[in-house]
Each structure stands twice: as C-alpha cells, then as structure tokens.
TrEMBL record, chain A:
<protein>
    <submittedName>
        <fullName>AA3-600 quinol oxidase subunit I</fullName>
    </submittedName>
</protein>
<keyword id="KW-1133">Transmembrane helix</keyword>
<keyword id="KW-0812">Transmembrane</keyword>
<keyword id="KW-0472">Membrane</keyword>
<feature type="transmembrane region" description="Helical">
    <location>
        <begin position="20"/>
        <end position="53"/>
    </location>
</feature>
TrEMBL record, chain B:
<dbReference type="GO" id="GO:0004129">
    <property type="term" value="F:cytochrome-c oxidase activity"/>
</dbReference>
<feature type="domain" description="Heme-copper oxidase subunit III family profile">
    <location>
        <begin position="20"/>
        <end position="197"/>
    </location>
</feature>
<dbReference type="GO" id="GO:0005886">
    <property type="term" value="C:plasma membrane"/>
</dbReference>
<feature type="transmembrane region" description="Helical">
    <location>
        <begin position="131"/>
        <end position="159"/>
    </location>
</feature>
<protein>
    <recommendedName>
        <fullName>Quinol oxidase subunit 3</fullName>
        <ecNumber>1.10.3.-</ecNumber>
    </recommendedName>
</protein>
<keyword id="KW-0812">Transmembrane</keyword>
<keyword id="KW-1133">Transmembrane helix</keyword>
Automatic annotation (TrEMBL), chain C:
<dbReference type="InterPro" id="IPR005171">
    <property type="entry name" value="Cyt_c_oxidase_su4_prok"/>
</dbReference>
<dbReference type="Pfam" id="PF03626">
    <property type="entry name" value="COX4_pro"/>
</dbReference>
<dbReference type="GO" id="GO:0009486">
    <property type="term" value="F:cytochrome bo3 ubiquinol oxidase activity"/>
</dbReference>
<protein>
    <recommendedName>
        <fullName>Quinol oxidase subunit 4</fullName>
        <ecNumber>1.10.3.-</ecNumber>
    </recommendedName>
</protein>
<dbReference type="GO" id="GO:0019646">
    <property type="term" value="P:aerobic electron transport chain"/>
</dbReference>
<dbReference type="GO" id="GO:0016682">
    <property type="term" value="F:oxidoreductase activity, acting on diphenols and related substances as donors, oxygen as acceptor"/>
</dbReference>
<dbReference type="GO" id="GO:0005886">
    <property type="term" value="C:plasma membrane"/>
</dbReference>
Length: 81, 199, 100
C-alpha cells in the first residue's frame, strides 16, 4: 500500500459505560423475568448511572496518525527496513 | 448543500454519522413495533372470557386526549428544532420544556388508563388479548418515559454549553425520536383503539 | 433545506393542523358513518399512513442531510419488513398452518 492511500483511522476512546450498561440491562432483565421487582429496581440504578454518565461524556475518540499506521503495518509484516 | 446554509447539527462528520445511525436505529424500532402489532392482531380475539376490548374497556374521550397531547408535543418539538436552527436558545429551551410537559401529561393519562383497565378486570395476565395490548401500549409508554428522561438530560447540557455542534446534533436526534413515538402512536390509535371500537 | 431560515415554520403548522384534522376525520368515519367495518378499517388505515408520511417529511425532514436518499431507502426497507412481519404473522397463524 502506498503512503498516499493511508488515512488517519478514527478510534473511540476507552469507556466504562457500555460494559456497565450491558451487564445492568442483562441483570435487570433477569430479575424482571422472575418478577423480583425489588431487585430489578435496585439493579436498574446501574442502567441510570450508565446512561447519565454516557450522555455527559463528550469524548469523541481520537485518530491514529498515518505515520503510526505505516510503522505498525511494517512491523507486523516483519518488514523492518 | 453549501456550508453556510448547513444546519449546525450537520456540520461535523461525526454528527452526520450520528444522525444517519439514528435513522438506522429508527428502522430497527419500526421492526420492533411491527412484531408487537403482529402478536396483538393475532391474539386480539382470544379474550378467554375476560373483557373483549373495544367498547368493553376503551374510553374514546381519554384516548383522544392522549392522542392530542402527543400530536401537540410532536409539533412543539418541531418548533424547538426550528428555534434551534435560528440560534434561539431560549425558544429551543421553552419549546422543549413544553414538549416534556405534554409528554408527561400523556404518560399521566396512559397510567390512569392502565389503572382503569385493571379496574375493569383486564390485567396483563387475563387473556391473550390483554397480554398483547399491555405489551404494545407498555412498550410505547416506556419509550415515552425514556424520551422524557433523555430530553431532560440534554436540556441540562444545553443550559451549560449553549447551542453547539454537539448539543444541536444531540437535540436534533432526540426530536427525531420524539416524532417517531408520535408516528407509532398514530398506528396504535388507529389499529388498536379505533379498530377495537368498530369491529 | 428551508427549515432553518428565520421565516415562520409554515410546514410545521400545516403538518400539525393536518394531523389533528386526520385524527378527527378518522374518529368521524369510525363512529358516524354507515360503512361496513372493513371499509372503515381501510379508510382509517389510509389516514394513519398519510399522517405518518406527514410526520416523516414535515417534522422529521427525512430527505435532509447528505445521506437523505439513504434515510429514505432505510425507512422504506423497514416499512416493507414491518408489513411482511405483520401480514405474514397473521396469515400463518390464522389460516391453519400453525395447527398442522
């Protein structure tokens, strides 16, 4: 690949909200299936925290620059020239 | 589109992608509600000796009030986006608060309606008909509840940050969601309430 | 692409008035006409679809933005899926196939 073809790659930043939301939704769903409403309400606090944290998170991620892409690609191919 | 006429919410590439992604999500929501409508239509006549829909439990006056509340809230959220595109922060805030109040009024009416159904002996476990009905209406009501919380949180950000590329795209997406809920309600109104009362 | 000018939002007002009018018309057709119930269902169904189209175009500006045509294709695709799901389910569960 020629260098001219490479473009910076957009990457999302690390975040704890998606995993917390995924687990919380699963747990709340489990409790709702068995109608354990008290536990479901307690677990749904996790959903609320995750959603609120997520909406106030203004981090748009970052870009991997072309130089770094080229360097990494070359190393992975074992082409160290 | 030339750049000086592009609305603020479409300015950055990220916002454009977010709006496009939300349209794809709305497509998935259409399919979700289609499955709920399908199961309701299949179960509609399986009343298991309980109340049989239509004139038995539906109250036209209450349903009309709910419909007008939601239609008006859709209109006010449209006005809010119009104000946003004129960079009118105060107008945006006021119309969005009006939208939230109308949405809360709708929820109040719907909860009362559910209590009325239960009072008439139609709980979610009574029959296939009531299970389908409560699931369809409840899913729509849960969406409205979520939308109210969502827009409230966005308004906090609007007050703190003003109308920026990011807040405008967030509010625009929330308004799309709100209009979508109105579209779903139109079909519930027609094919659940009116159909139930005429058949 | 005209909704962001400072003029009065006529398209919103027209959409709102039309939705209210269509809702009231649907109620009128349902309770105050003598059509058979299947004819009534077709008429109010057409009103509902017309009202949904009003919302999509006048309120949600579905054709707006660089990806306008993609939005339209996506929504049309979802509506086709919805129709297949609804009518397919009713057909397969009411015409005896499920009983075999």
């Amino acid at each position: 690949m020629k260098k001219a073809d490479l473009k910076p790659v957009h990457m999302p930043s690390n975040s704890w909200t998606p995993i917390v939301l995924a687990i919380a939704f699963g747990v709340v769903g489990f409790f709702l299936v068995f109608e354990w409403f008290t536990l479901a309400i307690i677990a749904s606090v996790g959903i609320v925290i995750g959603l609120v944290a997520n909406t106030f998170d203004y981090n748009d991620g970052y870009h991997i620059p072309v130089d770094e892409l080229e360097k990494e690609e070359r190393e992975w191919r074992g082409d160290l020239k | 589109m030339t750049s000086h006429t592009t609305p603020l919410e479409y300015k950055s590439h990220q916002s454009q992608m977010n709006i496009l992604g939300f349209w794809v999500f709305l497509g998935a929501e259409i399919v979700l509600f289609a499955t709920l409508f399908a199961s309701y239509f299949v179960l509609e006549h399986n009343t298991a000796g309980g109340p049989g829909g239509g004139a038995d439990i539906f109250v036209l006056k209450d349903v009309l009030i709910e419909t007008f509340l939601l239609l008006t809230s859709s209109f006010t959220s449209g006005l809010a986006i119009h104000a946003m595109r004129n960079h009118d922060k105060k107008g945006l805030l006021l119309w969005m608060i009006a939208t939230l109040l109308l949405g809360a009024g709708f929820l109040f009416m719907e909860i009362n309606e559910f209590l009325h159904f239960i009072h008439e002996g139609a709980t979610i476990q009574t029959s296939g008909f009531t299970a389908g009905l409560f699931t369809l209406l409840g899913t729509h009501g849960a969406h409205v509840t979520f939308g109210i919380i969502w827009i409230s949180l966005l308004l906090v950000q609007l007050v703190r940050r003003g109308i920026t590329e990011k807040t405008s795209s967030k509010l625009f997406i929330a308004s799309l969601y709100w209009h979508f809920l109105d579209v779903v309600w139109i079909f519930i109104f027609t094919f659940v309430y009116l159909k139930g009362m005429v058949m | 692409m005209s909704a962001h000018t400072s003029r009065f939002p006529w398209n919103l007002l027209v959409g709102f008035v039309l939705s209210i009018a269509l809702t009231l018309l649907a109620v009128f057709v349902t309770f105050y006409t003598d059509f058979s119930s299947s004819v009534i269902l077709w008429i109010i169904g057409a009103f509902a679809i017309f009202q949904a189209i009003i919302q999509l175009f006048m309120f949600m500006h579905v054709t707006e933005g660089k990806e306008g045509i993609i939005n339209v294709i996506n929504i049309v695709n979802s509506m086709i899926l919805a129709l297949i799901i609804i009518f397919g389910t009713i057909w397969v569960l009411t015409s005896g196939h499920a009983a075999m």
